[in-house]
């Protein structure tokens, strides 16, 4: 078995397709794909820049090399492969069908939805989505942790300030005095960004300089909390007070954030 794996890997790394390797060594396609994932066969920096149907190139934006290889080795028609490629870019069946089949929007709305239910296409898309998740190293827990960071972030994580006293003066620069003859002072504060390496930029939605100075906008804390609440388990005891349940949620959020840090 080890010898077969090594031979198949050598041919795969040389650029041979799954189907050709399968025929050469009489190994099932699914077995080859399983070996590829298990032993992490990577073809390095080699890239294919376009996939053609009737000579028309399409951009592979958002489509990793493994996804392209998976499509090429499938039994779908060229148009169906194009549809899958476009669908993985926006997950919009109408747009993907328009791009792949060059039809008007009304036709694409009906045909795109129908093609999305095609058994072979649906099965291929399921495989490709799993492959994309592997290529992106992204899962539901990663998304949950991002919401946790947004829900617990504050401006104090981004901004710092310096407080000092300032003497009030008139137009000629002379200080205003109180009834005892002492200069009148007021507290001032300068607000500024923390050093770049101390900021978690993933919690910032917008940052720019407006007419009144620096403007920092974090992601919607309430929305992030709502997303987390929807994903956290409900209390087992229905008699638990709401405040207790919310406290448990906040504790869970802080625990998730601590694990991420």
Automatic annotation (TrEMBL):
InterPro entries: SPP1-like_terminase, Terminase_Gp1_N_sf, Terminase_ssu
Annotated keywords: Viral genome packaging, Viral release from host cell
Gene Ontology biological process terms from the UniProt entry: chromosome organization
Domain of life of the native organism: Bacteria
Name of the protein in its database record: Terminase
């Amino acid at each position: 078995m080890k010898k077969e794996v090594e031979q198949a890997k050598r041919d795969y790394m040389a650029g041979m397709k799954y189907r050709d390797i399968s025929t050469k060594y009489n190994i099932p396609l699914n077995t080859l794909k399983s070996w590829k994932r298990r032993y992490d066969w990577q073809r390095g920096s080699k890239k294919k820049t376009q996939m053609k149907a009737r000579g028309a190139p399409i951009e592979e934006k958002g489509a990793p090399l493994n996804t392209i290889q998976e499509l090429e080795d499938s039994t779908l028609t060229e148009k169906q492969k194009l549809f899958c490629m476009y669908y993985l870019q926006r997950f919009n069946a109408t747009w993907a069908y328009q791009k792949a089949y060059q039809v008007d929007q009304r036709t694409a709305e009906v045909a795109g939805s129908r093609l999305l239910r095609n058994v072979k296409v649906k099965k291929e898309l399921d495989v490709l989505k799993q492959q994309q998740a592997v290529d992106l190293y992204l899962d539901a827990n990663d998304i949950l942790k991002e919401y946790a960071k947004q829900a617990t972030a504050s401006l104090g994580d981004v901004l710092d300030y310096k407080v000092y006293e300032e003497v009030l003066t008139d137009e000629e620069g002379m200080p205003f005095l109180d009834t005892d003859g002492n200069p009148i002072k007021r507290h001032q504060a300068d607000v500024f960004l923390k050093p770049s390496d101390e900021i978690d930029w993933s919690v910032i939605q917008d940052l720019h300089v407006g007419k009144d100075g620096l403007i920092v906008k974090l992601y919607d804390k309430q929305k992030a909390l709502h997303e987390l609440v929807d994903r956290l388990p409900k209390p087992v005891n229905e008699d638990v007070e709401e405040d207790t349940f919310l406290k448990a949620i906040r504790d869970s959020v802080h625990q998730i954030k601590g694990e991420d840090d």
